[in-house]
Amino acid sequence: MGTADLHIHSTYSHDATSTVRAVLKQAADVGLNVIAVTDHNEIRGSLEAHELAPKYGIESIPAVEVSTKEGHLVALFVKTLPPAGLTLADTLIYIGRLGGVAIAPHPFNNLPSSLSMESVVSALTNPRAKGVLKGIETHNMSTQSFDSVAQKLSVYLPFAKIGSSDAHVYWAIGAGRTEFPGETAQDLRNALDQMTTVPIPYKEEFSTKAILSWMHRMTLRKFGYASDNKSATQPINTQKMSQSFIQRIKKK
Ligand SMILES: [Zn+2]
Ligand SMILES: [Zn+2]
Asked: Which ligand lies nearest to the CA atom of residue 68 in the structure?
């Protein structure tokens, strides 16, 4: 069995604190085989991760967390950014044309960024959108107190069950993962098709300490510091980001 964390944010997301290299280093250190860097409406970090991942001995699927009109959607196996603000059905059709598949992250709760059951059921009635949505997160470490409805409904829905971290800080990577038969990104894709994934939830509560740690790192980020490492072997450290890197993550 392989393990994947298919929902991780890098500094290319406005609300995350680890560089792509720190994400890859941590993912390798905690024994993940496959990851997806899924920044908010931004794909450059994920493309970088896809290129760099072999140096860390893992695979990183090109991916993005796109904001549809109806809520967030994780697109996997895409190298082009789907436009934000489309309906869920239109976004799924777009992802399908790119050769990708999708997962509904932190679904069926009252969070403003989550897809509702009505949205998902309505998208399923569209024959072109239907086959693209392959999985739902039944366990998302960052929204775990809102996950129970997705867990209950998942029994009745034709989707692979996914556990993810939705990590915005490096130490959360892998705290929420998905097991699948095989080890590679292609094996993972097959497991999504066959609904043979097994979500492995994070065992501890998402504590106040974790929120404070994220706030601390966000403050550092405002001053130009991020969790980083210079090579595949060096430990992760808080490093000043170079001006050129800051320009790069700001430039759209
Ligand atoms: Zn989200
Ligand atoms: Zn997210």
From this structure: 1
Q: Which ligand is nearest to the CA of 13?
A: 2
Task: Indicate if the pLDDT at residue 12 is higher than 70.
Answer: yes
pLDDT at 205 over 80: no
DSSP per residue, 194-249: HT--EEE---S---HHHHHHHHHHHHHHHTTEEEE-SSSSSPPEEEEPPHHHHHHH
Which is nearest to 37 in space by CA: 21, 87, 135, 227? 21
Distance 114 CA to ligand 1 centre (A): 7
* Ligand whose nearest atom lies closest to the CA of 8: 2
pLDDT at 204 (0 to 100) = 80
pLDDT at res. 50: 98
For residue 185, which amino acid is it?
A: A
Question: Ligand 1 centroid vs 234 CA: distance in angstroms?
Answer: 30
Among all bound ligands, the one having the nearest atom to the CA of 165 is: 2
Q: Which of 53-57, 131-135, 200-204 has the lowest mean pLDDT?
A: 200-204
pTM of the entire predicted model: 0.96
